[in-house]
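Key idea: predict the complex, not the pieces.
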Amino acid sequence: MAAKSMTLLWGSGSCPCWRAMIALEEKNLQGYNHKLLSFDKMEHKSQQVLDINPRGQLPTFKHGDTVVNESYAICLYLESHFKSQGNQLIPDGPEEQALMYQRMFEGLTFYEKLGSVIYYDWYVPEGERHDSALKRNKDGLVVELGLWEGYLSKGSGSFLAGKSFSLADVVVFPTVAFLFRFGLSAGRYPKLEEYYALLKDRPSIKASWPPHWLEGPEEELLLKDI
Amino acid sequence: MAAKSMTLLWGSGSCPCWRAMIALEEKNLQGYNHKLLSFDKMEHKSQQVLDINPRGQLPTFKHGDTVVNESYAICLYLESHFKSQGNQLIPDGPEEQALMYQRMFEGLTFYEKLGSVIYYDWYVPEGERHDSALKRNKDGLVVELGLWEGYLSKGSGSFLAGKSFSLADVVVFPTVAFLFRFGLSAGRYPKLEEYYALLKDRPSIKASWPPHWLEGPEEELLLKDI
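Result:
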C-alpha cells in the first residue's frame, strides 16, 4: 500500500499540517507513518526535520524518496498521483476548476490575515509592536472575513468551489476552524459558521482534528470583537 | 481563438502580473486582450478592476465569463485548460512533478522575503519602522538566497524542477529578475545569476518584460550589499 511508504512529520494546531492531513484522509491514504512533533520544544528545528526539510518547518513529508514539504504542494501532488483513489479533489469542469484554484490561492491571503492578528505578538518582537499596526491588521481581517462571507452567500453550493468538496476546502477549512477556536462571533459571520458546522464532522477533518484542541480551549479569544 | 476571449488587466513591474503573462506566452495564447494600468494612479482600485476582482489587485483575468485573478491560480488554470497547447508546464513524472510543486510554493516565501526588504518602506508606515526589523528581513532574505543558490547547484538540470522549463520557473523567475534589478551581486550569487542569464532571453519572458524596465534602471539598488 502506498501509504506505508509515506512519512509525515507534523505539529498539532498548525494549519499547514492540517491541510496535508485532510488531503491524506480524503485520498484514502490512512496508515501513513507519522510523528507528532512539539513546536514548544522546537522539534521542528531538529535534525530529523532538517534532513528532509532545510526550512525546519512542519509539515515535512516524504513518499518513498520523494520529498514534498509545502502544504499546497502536498495537496496537489497527492491529488495528481492518486487521482482515481478516494475523493476527487479537483473538479473536471473548467469553470468549477477555475473557481477552485481562485479560492485556494485566496486562501493564502485569508490565512495570512488571520495570522497577522492571532500571531502578532509571536511574530513581532516586543520593542517593535505598535497598537496602530495591530489595529490595521484587525481591520484587514474584518475586510477579508467580509469577502469570504460574501463568497459563501453568493456561491452555487455549500462548498467553496460549488457543490463538491475540493482542494479549496482542504486548504481553507483549517483557517476557518482557527477563527472560531480563537473566538470569532458566529452571529456576525453566519455563513462562515454554517460552513464550519457543515464540515467539522466530515470524516477526513474529524480524523485529523488537532489533538490538543480536544483537551479543551486554551487559546485567548483574540477574535471575539472582530 | 481562445486568446480572443481573454482579458488581462495588469501593471508593469508586478511579479504576480508577470507570472500570468509568462504563462500566457508559454501556452501560445498571444493575442489576448490586455490593458496596462498604473499603480501610481491607483488604477488597480478602479471600478473596472473591482467589477472583476473585489480585492482591487492586479493581475485581474477573465476567460469568457470565467474569472481567475490569483497569479498561481491563473498558471494552474491555463496549464490544465490548454494542456496540449504550447509548452507543457507540469512534468508528467511523479518525482519531477513533486519537485516542481515544492519549488513553486517555496517561491511564495522567496517572493515574500524579497518584498519584506525592497517594499519595507512601502508596507510599513513611517512611525512603525524599526532598523532592527529591516535588518531581520535582510538576514532572512540572505538565508533564503542561500537555499535557492543551493537548489540550483545541486539540481539535476538548469531549471528549477530539472531539465525542463516548468511552472516553477514561470512563478519564480520574476522574483529572480527583481533581485538583480534591485542590485543583487552576481558575484555572490553565481548560480542565481546563471539561472537569470539562461532565462532572460527566453521568448515568453522577453515578450512580457516589464515595459518600464526597458526605459532604464530607476530603482534604488537596495540589495547591493545583501
